[in-house]
Amino acid sequence: MSTWPPAGADVVVVGAGPAGCVMARRLAEAGADVLLLEAGAELASRRAGLLNVGPESRVVAHHDAELGGVPLELTRGRTLGGSGAVNGGYCSPMTPAELAVWGPGWPRRYAVGLARAAERLRPRVPQSDPVAARVAAAFPGRLSVIAQARRGEHRVTAFDAWNPPGAGARVVTGAPVRELRWAGGHEGGRCDGVVLTEGVEVPAGAVVLCAGAISTAALLLGSGIGPGTGHPVGTGTEEHPEVLLALDGDPSAGQSFPGALPPLLSRVARLELGDARVEVRPYSVPLHRVIPGLDPQPHRIGIALMNAAGRGEVRPQPDGGVRVVLDARPDSRDAAALDEAAALVGERLGLDASPVVSTSQHLSGSARIGEVVDDSGRVLGVGGLRVADASVFPTLPLRGPYYSVLAVAEDLAARMVSEQAW
Ligand SMILES: Cc1cc2nc3c(=O)[nH]c(=O)nc-3n(C[C@H](O)[C@H](O)[C@H](O)COP(=O)(O)OP(=O)(O)OC[C@H]3O[C@@H](n4cnc5c(N)ncnc54)[C@H](O)[C@@H]3O)c2cc1C
Predict the structure, then answer these.
(1) Is the pTM above the cut of 0.85?
(2) Which of 113, 183, 212, 353 is the residue whose CA sits 20 to 30 A from 389?
Protein backbone atom coordinates (compact mmCIF):
# COMPACT_ATOMS: atom_id res chain seq x y z
CA MET A 1 0.00 0.00 0.00
CA SER A 2 1.13 3.58 -0.57
CA THR A 3 1.62 6.85 1.31
CA TRP A 4 -0.76 9.84 1.56
CA PRO A 5 -1.09 12.04 -0.41
CA PRO A 6 -0.11 9.73 -3.24
CA ALA A 7 2.71 10.83 -5.52
CA GLY A 8 2.11 11.02 -9.27
CA ALA A 9 2.69 8.02 -11.49
CA ASP A 10 3.27 6.91 -15.06
CA VAL A 11 -0.26 5.49 -15.00
CA VAL A 12 -3.10 6.12 -12.57
CA VAL A 13 -5.69 3.32 -12.63
CA VAL A 14 -8.99 4.48 -11.13
CA GLY A 15 -10.85 1.68 -9.31
CA ALA A 16 -9.53 -1.64 -7.96
CA GLY A 17 -12.38 -3.75 -9.30
CA PRO A 18 -11.78 -6.67 -11.66
CA ALA A 19 -10.68 -4.50 -14.59
CA GLY A 20 -8.54 -2.23 -12.43
CA CYS A 21 -6.67 -5.12 -10.81
CA VAL A 22 -5.88 -6.69 -14.20
CA MET A 23 -4.72 -3.36 -15.63
CA ALA A 24 -2.60 -2.41 -12.64
CA ARG A 25 -0.88 -5.81 -12.57
CA ARG A 26 -0.10 -5.99 -16.27
CA LEU A 27 1.12 -2.38 -16.58
CA ALA A 28 3.31 -2.72 -13.48
CA GLU A 29 4.75 -6.01 -14.79
CA ALA A 30 5.65 -4.15 -17.99
CA GLY A 31 7.69 -1.63 -16.01
CA ALA A 32 5.24 1.27 -15.59
CA ASP A 33 5.05 3.08 -12.27
CA VAL A 34 1.38 2.37 -11.51
CA LEU A 35 -0.84 3.96 -8.89
CA LEU A 36 -4.11 2.10 -8.28
CA LEU A 37 -6.68 4.33 -6.55
CA GLU A 38 -9.67 2.66 -4.89
CA ALA A 39 -12.59 4.61 -3.41
CA GLY A 40 -13.43 1.96 -0.80
CA ALA A 41 -11.54 1.93 2.47
CA GLU A 42 -12.67 -1.42 3.92
CA LEU A 43 -11.92 -4.99 2.91
CA ALA A 44 -14.72 -7.42 2.01
CA SER A 45 -15.12 -10.70 3.87
CA ARG A 46 -13.25 -13.54 2.20
CA ARG A 47 -15.91 -16.10 3.11
CA ALA A 48 -16.80 -17.97 -0.08
CA GLY A 49 -20.42 -17.63 -1.11
CA LEU A 50 -21.09 -14.52 0.99
CA LEU A 51 -22.62 -11.58 -0.92
CA ASN A 52 -21.83 -8.67 1.36
CA VAL A 53 -24.34 -6.33 -0.30
CA GLY A 54 -26.91 -6.09 2.51
CA PRO A 55 -28.25 -2.88 4.04
CA GLU A 56 -25.39 -2.59 6.53
CA SER A 57 -22.56 -3.48 4.19
CA ARG A 58 -19.57 -1.15 4.41
CA VAL A 59 -18.04 -2.42 1.17
CA VAL A 60 -20.66 -1.33 -1.35
CA ALA A 61 -22.04 1.85 -2.91
CA HIS A 62 -25.78 2.06 -3.58
CA HIS A 63 -27.09 3.90 -6.64
CA ASP A 64 -30.71 4.89 -7.18
CA ALA A 65 -32.25 3.26 -10.20
CA GLU A 66 -35.61 2.56 -11.77
CA LEU A 67 -37.05 -0.03 -14.13
CA GLY A 68 -40.55 0.30 -15.55
CA GLY A 69 -41.22 3.06 -13.04
CA VAL A 70 -40.35 0.67 -10.17
CA PRO A 71 -37.61 2.07 -7.92
CA LEU A 72 -34.64 -0.26 -7.53
CA GLU A 73 -31.23 0.02 -6.01
CA LEU A 74 -28.10 -0.87 -7.93
CA THR A 75 -25.31 -2.05 -5.68
CA ARG A 76 -21.65 -1.97 -6.61
CA GLY A 77 -18.68 -3.28 -4.69
CA ARG A 78 -16.60 -0.48 -3.19
CA THR A 79 -13.53 -2.32 -2.04
CA LEU A 80 -10.43 -4.09 -3.33
CA GLY A 81 -11.82 -6.50 -5.93
CA GLY A 82 -14.79 -4.17 -6.64
CA SER A 83 -18.13 -5.81 -7.35
CA GLY A 84 -16.21 -9.06 -7.85
CA ALA A 85 -15.58 -9.11 -4.08
CA VAL A 86 -19.31 -9.15 -3.31
CA ASN A 87 -20.92 -10.73 -6.39
CA GLY A 88 -22.48 -14.12 -7.07
CA GLY A 89 -19.09 -15.22 -8.42
CA TYR A 90 -20.45 -16.95 -11.45
CA CYS A 91 -17.92 -17.13 -14.28
CA SER A 92 -19.12 -17.96 -17.78
CA PRO A 93 -17.16 -17.05 -20.94
CA MET A 94 -18.72 -15.57 -24.07
CA THR A 95 -18.91 -17.71 -27.19
CA PRO A 96 -17.18 -16.78 -30.48
CA ALA A 97 -20.65 -16.28 -32.04
CA GLU A 98 -21.53 -13.67 -29.39
CA LEU A 99 -18.17 -11.95 -29.91
CA ALA A 100 -18.49 -11.78 -33.67
CA VAL A 101 -20.84 -8.78 -33.31
CA TRP A 102 -18.05 -6.92 -31.49
CA GLY A 103 -15.95 -6.98 -34.68
CA PRO A 104 -13.85 -9.49 -36.65
CA GLY A 105 -10.81 -9.41 -34.35
CA TRP A 106 -12.68 -9.96 -31.13
CA PRO A 107 -13.15 -13.73 -30.97
CA ARG A 108 -9.36 -14.14 -31.05
CA ARG A 109 -8.55 -11.15 -28.82
CA TYR A 110 -11.07 -12.37 -26.26
CA ALA A 111 -9.79 -15.96 -26.39
CA VAL A 112 -6.25 -14.79 -25.60
CA GLY A 113 -7.49 -12.46 -22.83
CA LEU A 114 -9.65 -15.20 -21.37
CA ALA A 115 -6.77 -17.69 -21.32
CA ARG A 116 -4.71 -15.18 -19.33
CA ALA A 117 -7.61 -14.49 -16.99
CA ALA A 118 -8.35 -18.19 -16.46
CA GLU A 119 -4.72 -18.81 -15.54
CA ARG A 120 -4.99 -16.29 -12.70
CA LEU A 121 -8.57 -16.77 -11.46
CA ARG A 122 -8.88 -20.54 -12.03
CA PRO A 123 -12.65 -20.78 -11.46
CA ARG A 124 -14.00 -24.26 -10.72
CA VAL A 125 -17.28 -25.97 -11.38
CA PRO A 126 -19.08 -26.69 -8.10
CA GLN A 127 -21.33 -29.64 -7.31
CA SER A 128 -24.95 -29.40 -8.31
CA ASP A 129 -27.65 -28.79 -5.69
CA PRO A 130 -31.31 -29.74 -5.24
CA VAL A 131 -32.72 -26.58 -6.85
CA ALA A 132 -30.47 -26.94 -9.90
CA ALA A 133 -31.54 -30.58 -10.18
CA ARG A 134 -35.20 -29.55 -10.09
CA VAL A 135 -34.68 -27.02 -12.90
CA ALA A 136 -32.65 -29.60 -14.87
CA ALA A 137 -35.57 -32.02 -14.66
CA ALA A 138 -37.97 -29.30 -15.85
CA PHE A 139 -35.75 -28.26 -18.78
CA PRO A 140 -33.94 -31.38 -20.01
CA GLY A 141 -30.79 -30.65 -22.00
CA ARG A 142 -30.86 -26.91 -21.29
CA LEU A 143 -28.60 -26.81 -18.24
CA SER A 144 -25.10 -25.24 -18.33
CA VAL A 145 -22.59 -25.54 -15.52
CA ILE A 146 -21.29 -22.37 -13.92
CA ALA A 147 -17.73 -22.07 -12.59
CA GLN A 148 -17.04 -20.24 -9.35
CA ALA A 149 -13.91 -18.36 -8.23
CA ARG A 150 -13.32 -19.90 -4.82
CA ARG A 151 -10.72 -22.08 -3.09
CA GLY A 152 -12.12 -24.08 -0.24
CA GLU A 153 -13.73 -21.66 2.17
CA HIS A 154 -12.41 -18.53 0.47
CA ARG A 155 -13.66 -16.35 -2.36
CA VAL A 156 -10.88 -15.49 -4.83
CA THR A 157 -11.20 -11.89 -5.99
CA ALA A 158 -9.37 -10.22 -8.85
CA PHE A 159 -7.28 -8.42 -6.24
CA ASP A 160 -6.22 -11.80 -4.80
CA ALA A 161 -5.62 -13.37 -8.19
CA TRP A 162 -3.81 -10.51 -9.97
CA ASN A 163 -2.14 -9.14 -6.82
CA PRO A 164 -1.14 -5.70 -8.21
CA PRO A 165 1.20 -4.84 -5.30
CA GLY A 166 3.07 -8.10 -6.00
CA ALA A 167 4.06 -6.62 -9.38
CA GLY A 168 5.06 -3.29 -7.82
CA ALA A 169 1.85 -1.26 -8.27
CA ARG A 170 1.17 1.23 -5.47
CA VAL A 171 -2.35 0.77 -4.10
CA VAL A 172 -4.21 3.46 -2.18
CA THR A 173 -7.62 2.70 -0.64
CA GLY A 174 -10.11 5.28 0.64
CA ALA A 175 -9.13 7.44 -2.35
CA PRO A 176 -12.21 8.35 -4.41
CA VAL A 177 -11.34 10.22 -7.59
CA ARG A 178 -13.56 13.29 -8.03
CA GLU A 179 -12.61 14.32 -11.55
CA LEU A 180 -10.02 14.19 -14.27
CA ARG A 181 -7.23 16.74 -14.53
CA TRP A 182 -6.62 18.38 -17.90
CA ALA A 183 -3.27 19.71 -19.17
CA GLY A 184 -3.44 23.51 -19.24
CA GLY A 185 -7.00 23.32 -17.91
CA HIS A 186 -8.33 22.47 -21.40
CA GLU A 187 -11.27 20.09 -20.81
CA GLY A 188 -11.26 17.26 -23.32
CA GLY A 189 -7.65 17.96 -24.42
CA ARG A 190 -4.99 15.84 -22.74
CA CYS A 191 -5.72 14.21 -19.42
CA ASP A 192 -2.67 14.57 -17.18
CA GLY A 193 -3.91 13.23 -13.88
CA VAL A 194 -6.82 13.03 -11.48
CA VAL A 195 -8.23 15.08 -8.63
CA LEU A 196 -9.30 13.26 -5.46
CA THR A 197 -12.42 14.24 -3.50
CA GLU A 198 -10.32 16.22 -1.04
CA GLY A 199 -8.92 18.33 -3.89
CA VAL A 200 -5.57 16.52 -3.89
CA GLU A 201 -4.16 16.48 -7.43
CA VAL A 202 -2.29 13.40 -8.66
CA PRO A 203 -0.37 13.89 -11.92
CA ALA A 204 -0.08 11.00 -14.36
CA GLY A 205 1.31 10.23 -17.79
CA ALA A 206 -1.88 8.31 -18.51
CA VAL A 207 -5.16 7.60 -16.70
CA VAL A 208 -7.16 4.38 -17.07
CA LEU A 209 -10.74 4.49 -15.80
CA CYS A 210 -11.85 1.18 -14.24
CA ALA A 211 -14.49 2.57 -11.87
CA GLY A 212 -17.31 0.39 -13.25
CA ALA A 213 -20.13 1.14 -15.67
CA ILE A 214 -21.84 3.66 -13.38
CA SER A 215 -18.91 5.53 -11.84
CA THR A 216 -16.76 5.62 -14.98
CA ALA A 217 -19.65 7.30 -16.81
CA ALA A 218 -20.14 9.69 -13.88
CA LEU A 219 -16.42 10.59 -13.88
CA LEU A 220 -16.36 11.22 -17.63
CA LEU A 221 -19.52 13.34 -17.55
CA GLY A 222 -18.35 15.22 -14.45
CA SER A 223 -15.06 16.01 -16.19
CA GLY A 224 -16.63 17.45 -19.34
CA ILE A 225 -16.58 14.33 -21.57
CA GLY A 226 -20.12 13.73 -22.80
CA PRO A 227 -22.64 14.90 -25.36
CA GLY A 228 -20.91 18.32 -25.58
CA THR A 229 -17.69 16.68 -26.83
CA GLY A 230 -19.51 14.22 -29.10
CA HIS A 231 -19.20 11.29 -26.68
CA PRO A 232 -22.47 9.46 -25.94
CA VAL A 233 -21.44 8.65 -22.36
CA GLY A 234 -23.97 6.91 -20.13
CA THR A 235 -26.62 6.48 -22.81
CA GLY A 236 -27.65 3.16 -24.31
CA THR A 237 -26.50 1.08 -21.33
CA GLU A 238 -27.47 -2.57 -21.18
CA GLU A 239 -28.66 -4.74 -18.33
CA HIS A 240 -30.19 -8.18 -17.81
CA PRO A 241 -33.64 -7.51 -16.31
CA GLU A 242 -34.72 -10.34 -14.04
CA VAL A 243 -37.90 -11.49 -12.36
CA LEU A 244 -37.96 -13.72 -9.33
CA LEU A 245 -40.42 -16.56 -8.72
CA ALA A 246 -40.99 -18.01 -5.25
CA LEU A 247 -40.41 -21.74 -4.88
CA ASP A 248 -42.73 -23.80 -2.74
CA GLY A 249 -40.65 -24.42 0.36
CA ASP A 250 -36.99 -23.97 1.16
CA PRO A 251 -34.74 -26.98 0.56
CA SER A 252 -31.99 -25.32 2.63
CA ALA A 253 -34.23 -24.66 5.70
CA GLY A 254 -32.64 -25.98 8.86
CA GLN A 255 -29.22 -26.40 7.23
CA SER A 256 -26.38 -24.34 8.67
CA PHE A 257 -23.25 -23.43 6.77
CA PRO A 258 -20.44 -23.01 9.27
CA GLY A 259 -17.60 -22.56 6.73
CA ALA A 260 -18.07 -21.61 3.12
CA LEU A 261 -21.59 -20.86 1.99
CA PRO A 262 -22.94 -22.84 -0.97
CA PRO A 263 -22.51 -21.08 -4.32
CA LEU A 264 -25.71 -19.21 -5.09
CA LEU A 265 -25.55 -20.62 -8.61
CA SER A 266 -23.95 -23.84 -9.79
CA ARG A 267 -26.01 -24.28 -12.97
CA VAL A 268 -28.31 -22.19 -15.19
CA ALA A 269 -30.86 -23.26 -17.80
CA ARG A 270 -30.55 -21.33 -21.07
CA LEU A 271 -33.78 -21.04 -23.04
CA GLU A 272 -34.59 -19.63 -26.47
CA LEU A 273 -38.14 -18.30 -26.62
CA GLY A 274 -38.55 -16.89 -30.11
CA ASP A 275 -35.89 -14.15 -30.33
CA ALA A 276 -35.58 -13.89 -26.55
CA ARG A 277 -32.59 -15.46 -24.77
CA VAL A 278 -33.51 -16.34 -21.21
CA GLU A 279 -31.43 -17.60 -18.30
CA VAL A 280 -33.23 -19.52 -15.56
CA ARG A 281 -31.21 -19.20 -12.35
CA PRO A 282 -31.87 -21.88 -9.77
CA TYR A 283 -30.52 -19.99 -6.74
CA SER A 284 -29.44 -22.67 -4.30
CA VAL A 285 -30.64 -20.91 -1.13
CA PRO A 286 -32.91 -17.94 -0.30
CA LEU A 287 -30.99 -14.67 -0.67
CA HIS A 288 -31.10 -13.85 3.05
CA ARG A 289 -28.96 -16.95 3.73
CA VAL A 290 -26.04 -15.43 1.81
CA ILE A 291 -26.67 -11.66 2.12
CA PRO A 292 -26.16 -10.48 5.71
CA GLY A 293 -28.79 -8.10 7.07
CA LEU A 294 -31.50 -9.00 4.56
CA ASP A 295 -34.95 -9.68 6.02
CA PRO A 296 -36.03 -13.32 5.65
CA GLN A 297 -37.72 -13.85 2.33
CA PRO A 298 -39.10 -16.70 0.28
CA HIS A 299 -36.71 -18.91 -1.63
CA ARG A 300 -36.91 -17.52 -5.14
CA ILE A 301 -35.34 -18.48 -8.45
CA GLY A 302 -34.41 -15.97 -11.13
CA ILE A 303 -35.54 -15.64 -14.73
CA ALA A 304 -33.41 -13.14 -16.61
CA LEU A 305 -33.71 -11.71 -20.10
CA MET A 306 -30.21 -11.85 -21.57
CA ASN A 307 -30.82 -9.85 -24.78
CA ALA A 308 -33.11 -7.05 -23.68
CA ALA A 309 -33.96 -4.59 -26.46
CA GLY A 310 -34.53 -1.64 -24.10
CA ARG A 311 -31.63 0.62 -23.21
CA GLY A 312 -30.79 2.55 -20.08
CA GLU A 313 -29.08 5.74 -19.06
CA VAL A 314 -26.71 6.88 -16.32
CA ARG A 315 -27.87 10.37 -15.30
CA PRO A 316 -25.80 12.62 -13.05
CA GLN A 317 -27.89 14.32 -10.34
CA PRO A 318 -27.54 17.88 -9.00
CA ASP A 319 -26.44 16.50 -5.60
CA GLY A 320 -23.38 14.90 -7.22
CA GLY A 321 -24.86 11.38 -7.24
CA VAL A 322 -26.15 9.44 -10.25
CA ARG A 323 -29.48 7.86 -11.10
CA VAL A 324 -29.66 4.91 -13.46
CA VAL A 325 -32.83 4.62 -15.53
CA LEU A 326 -32.57 1.03 -16.73
CA ASP A 327 -35.29 1.46 -19.34
CA ALA A 328 -34.74 5.06 -20.44
CA ARG A 329 -35.49 3.72 -23.93
CA PRO A 330 -38.01 0.98 -23.11
CA ASP A 331 -39.06 -1.80 -25.46
CA SER A 332 -42.34 -3.58 -24.90
CA ARG A 333 -40.86 -6.86 -26.17
CA ASP A 334 -38.79 -7.14 -22.99
CA ALA A 335 -41.71 -7.24 -20.56
CA ALA A 336 -43.57 -9.61 -22.87
CA ALA A 337 -40.56 -11.95 -23.06
CA LEU A 338 -40.12 -11.98 -19.29
CA ASP A 339 -43.86 -12.64 -18.76
CA GLU A 340 -43.73 -15.54 -21.20
CA ALA A 341 -40.59 -16.98 -19.61
CA ALA A 342 -41.98 -16.65 -16.07
CA ALA A 343 -45.21 -18.36 -17.12
CA LEU A 344 -43.27 -21.23 -18.72
CA VAL A 345 -40.99 -21.70 -15.71
CA GLY A 346 -43.95 -21.50 -13.34
CA GLU A 347 -45.82 -24.11 -15.35
CA ARG A 348 -42.87 -26.53 -15.64
CA LEU A 349 -42.02 -26.25 -11.94
CA GLY A 350 -45.63 -26.16 -10.77
CA LEU A 351 -45.36 -22.69 -9.19
CA ASP A 352 -48.17 -20.16 -9.06
CA ALA A 353 -46.45 -17.19 -7.37
CA SER A 354 -46.42 -13.77 -9.06
CA PRO A 355 -43.05 -12.69 -10.42
CA VAL A 356 -41.18 -9.99 -8.49
CA VAL A 357 -39.35 -7.37 -10.59
CA SER A 358 -35.60 -7.35 -10.04
CA THR A 359 -32.41 -6.94 -12.02
CA SER A 360 -29.11 -8.77 -12.41
CA GLN A 361 -26.66 -5.97 -11.47
CA HIS A 362 -24.85 -6.57 -14.79
CA LEU A 363 -24.89 -3.00 -16.17
CA SER A 364 -22.48 -2.36 -19.06
CA GLY A 365 -21.98 -0.21 -22.13
CA SER A 366 -21.84 3.30 -20.66
CA ALA A 367 -18.71 4.22 -22.69
CA ARG A 368 -18.81 1.81 -25.58
CA ILE A 369 -16.04 0.85 -27.97
CA GLY A 370 -16.68 2.61 -31.27
CA GLU A 371 -18.70 5.43 -29.68
CA VAL A 372 -16.76 6.75 -26.69
CA VAL A 373 -13.51 4.78 -26.85
CA ASP A 374 -11.58 3.14 -29.66
CA ASP A 375 -10.68 -0.52 -30.01
CA SER A 376 -7.85 -0.09 -27.51
CA GLY A 377 -9.95 1.70 -24.89
CA ARG A 378 -8.56 5.18 -25.74
CA VAL A 379 -11.19 7.89 -25.27
CA LEU A 380 -11.81 9.20 -28.78
CA GLY A 381 -10.19 12.54 -29.50
CA VAL A 382 -8.74 12.85 -26.00
CA GLY A 383 -5.10 12.34 -24.99
CA GLY A 384 -3.83 10.28 -22.06
CA LEU A 385 -7.20 8.76 -21.12
CA ARG A 386 -8.51 5.19 -21.47
CA VAL A 387 -11.41 3.14 -20.19
CA ALA A 388 -11.01 -0.60 -19.56
CA ASP A 389 -14.00 -1.79 -17.50
CA ALA A 390 -17.53 -3.05 -18.25
CA SER A 391 -18.37 0.40 -19.62
CA VAL A 392 -16.64 -0.37 -22.92
CA PHE A 393 -18.60 -3.50 -23.88
CA PRO A 394 -20.14 -3.02 -27.35
CA THR A 395 -22.93 -5.40 -26.29
CA LEU A 396 -23.70 -7.10 -23.00
CA PRO A 397 -22.78 -10.81 -23.05
CA LEU A 398 -25.64 -13.35 -23.04
CA ARG A 399 -24.35 -14.39 -19.60
CA GLY A 400 -22.95 -12.78 -16.48
CA PRO A 401 -20.27 -10.25 -17.47
CA TYR A 402 -17.66 -10.88 -14.74
CA TYR A 403 -15.39 -13.30 -16.60
CA SER A 404 -15.66 -11.15 -19.74
CA VAL A 405 -14.66 -7.99 -17.84
CA LEU A 406 -11.46 -9.80 -16.85
CA ALA A 407 -10.81 -11.15 -20.37
CA VAL A 408 -11.38 -7.76 -22.01
CA ALA A 409 -9.21 -5.97 -19.44
CA GLU A 410 -6.42 -8.45 -20.19
CA ASP A 411 -6.73 -7.63 -23.89
CA LEU A 412 -6.82 -3.85 -23.36
CA ALA A 413 -3.87 -4.06 -20.95
CA ALA A 414 -1.85 -6.01 -23.53
CA ARG A 415 -2.58 -3.31 -26.12
CA MET A 416 -1.52 -0.53 -23.77
CA VAL A 417 1.67 -2.42 -22.90
CA SER A 418 2.51 -2.99 -26.56
CA GLU A 419 2.20 0.76 -27.15
CA GLN A 420 4.16 1.59 -23.96
CA ALA A 421 1.47 4.27 -23.62
CA TRP A 422 2.71 6.13 -20.56
C1 LIG B 1 -24.35 -7.89 -6.29
C2 LIG B 1 -23.72 -8.25 -7.61
C3 LIG B 1 -23.75 -9.56 -8.05
C4 LIG B 1 -23.18 -9.89 -9.28
N5 LIG B 1 -23.09 -11.21 -9.63
C6 LIG B 1 -22.42 -11.55 -10.75
C7 LIG B 1 -22.20 -12.91 -11.09
O8 LIG B 1 -22.51 -13.83 -10.32
N9 LIG B 1 -21.60 -13.19 -12.28
C10 LIG B 1 -21.22 -12.21 -13.15
O11 LIG B 1 -20.74 -12.54 -14.23
N12 LIG B 1 -21.36 -10.92 -12.83
C13 LIG B 1 -21.92 -10.56 -11.64
N14 LIG B 1 -22.01 -9.24 -11.29
C15 LIG B 1 -21.44 -8.23 -12.20
C16 LIG B 1 -19.91 -8.16 -12.07
O17 LIG B 1 -19.50 -8.24 -10.74
C18 LIG B 1 -19.47 -6.84 -12.73
O19 LIG B 1 -19.83 -6.87 -14.10
C20 LIG B 1 -17.99 -6.58 -12.62
O21 LIG B 1 -17.54 -6.60 -11.28
C22 LIG B 1 -17.66 -5.23 -13.24
O23 LIG B 1 -16.31 -4.98 -13.09
P24 LIG B 1 -15.72 -3.50 -13.27
O25 LIG B 1 -14.25 -3.61 -13.09
O26 LIG B 1 -16.27 -2.94 -14.52
O27 LIG B 1 -16.38 -2.62 -12.09
P28 LIG B 1 -16.61 -2.86 -10.55
O29 LIG B 1 -16.53 -4.29 -10.19
O30 LIG B 1 -17.85 -2.13 -10.19
O31 LIG B 1 -15.36 -2.14 -9.84
C32 LIG B 1 -15.20 -0.75 -9.87
C33 LIG B 1 -14.28 -0.33 -8.72
O34 LIG B 1 -14.00 1.06 -8.87
C35 LIG B 1 -14.12 1.71 -7.62
N36 LIG B 1 -14.50 3.10 -7.87
C37 LIG B 1 -15.70 3.56 -8.32
N38 LIG B 1 -15.67 4.90 -8.44
C39 LIG B 1 -14.42 5.29 -8.05
C40 LIG B 1 -13.80 6.55 -7.95
N41 LIG B 1 -14.45 7.69 -8.29
N42 LIG B 1 -12.54 6.60 -7.49
C43 LIG B 1 -11.85 5.45 -7.16
N44 LIG B 1 -12.42 4.23 -7.23
C45 LIG B 1 -13.69 4.15 -7.68
C46 LIG B 1 -15.22 0.93 -6.91
O47 LIG B 1 -15.16 1.15 -5.51
C48 LIG B 1 -14.90 -0.51 -7.34
O49 LIG B 1 -13.97 -1.11 -6.48
C50 LIG B 1 -22.59 -8.88 -10.08
C51 LIG B 1 -22.57 -7.56 -9.64
C52 LIG B 1 -23.10 -7.23 -8.41
C53 LIG B 1 -23.04 -5.81 -7.93
Answers:
(1) yes
(2) 183
